[in-house]
Every structure is written in C-alpha cells, then in structure tokens.
Amino acid sequence: MDELFFGSAVCDVTSDGEILLPHHFGETIRLRSPDKMLFIGLHEEAQCLVAFDRLYAMRRQFDAEASSIPEDPHRLRRDYGFVESTLVTPGDMMILPALMRERGHIGHSVLLVATGRRFEIWDLVYVLKRGPSDLITLATHHLMVHIGNEVLHASALSPAEPHDDARRADQSGVCLQPVPAMQPRHDPVGQGAAGN
Question: What is the pTM of this model?
Fold first, then answer.
C-alpha cells in the first residue's frame, strides 16, 4: 500500500540539523520506507527542499523513462546529484544534511508541508517574508497555535512522567527556612525608653 504524507508543521532545527518530525510524518516514513531512509533534494521550482523515499525516486525515474520527452541533464543532476540521504530514528528525529541546509537556506525553524508521496521543507523566515500567501497563512496558523499553547501553559512537548519532588501548582517554589518563634515585647509599642 502506498501511504501518503498529510498535514503540515513548524519544527525547530538544531545547529546540527536535527529536526523532530511530527509523529504522523514519522509513521508515514516507517510505512513507506522499512529501512527508514529518506532522501533530501532540491525542489524543481520552489525555494525549498523535498524529502522522499527510494520508492518515490524509482517511480519518478520509471515515469521519466516511459515518456517520449528526452531526459534533461539539468533535471537529472538536480533529482539525483543534489540529493543527500538521512535516517529517521524510531523517535521521529532526522538530521538535515549540511549540504541540503545550505542549498535550501534553512535556518533555525522550518515549515514542513506534505504533498502526498513526499513533503516539502521550507525555511520559516523565508516563508513569512517572501513565501506564497497560502504558506504564509499556514505558517502563521501554526505559530499562533504554538503561542496560544504557551500562553495557556499547555505543554508543547510530549507529557513527561511526574517527579516525586514535583511541586503542586499553588506552591511558589521559594524555599523557606524555619525561624524560631519570637518572644512578645513587654514594653508598650510607641512609648519611649523608661525614665522619659
């Protein structure tokens, strides 16, 4: 069965190129590619990268060979030469290779957009400044949801197990040290020293 990518997400990119993929993207990768291998290449027309599996690449080549149009050397170089491979971990983490980060002008955040048998990887700053209007709307939506979750103190990460020393929400977190009780004063407050 040929599983398809659906949906979109905004993801952070570490300085090493690590991207934590949305779980549904990771699940689709596992169904499409048992070896969990992805290829990252340049988009044919847009200022973004594309991620695809071996089956997609083979089908594209088969379709190109079946057509009567002569093969374009520029397209072949882009489709097969400017491509890097990466593995997706069981935790849905992938590393965007350095060459692809450079060629795609990828910064600290990306917009992932599913396009069926592959997905696009857009630099988020580029999308917000110069991207197509539909992608600006999509990226803005994801960012507003993220900001809304932070304002409501909803966890943007997967829930963690509670720790034994976890404080209740009504505790301030300030450490207090016990102080011995004070003895009451015997002189009336507001009166001067004795003998006045």
Answer: 0.70
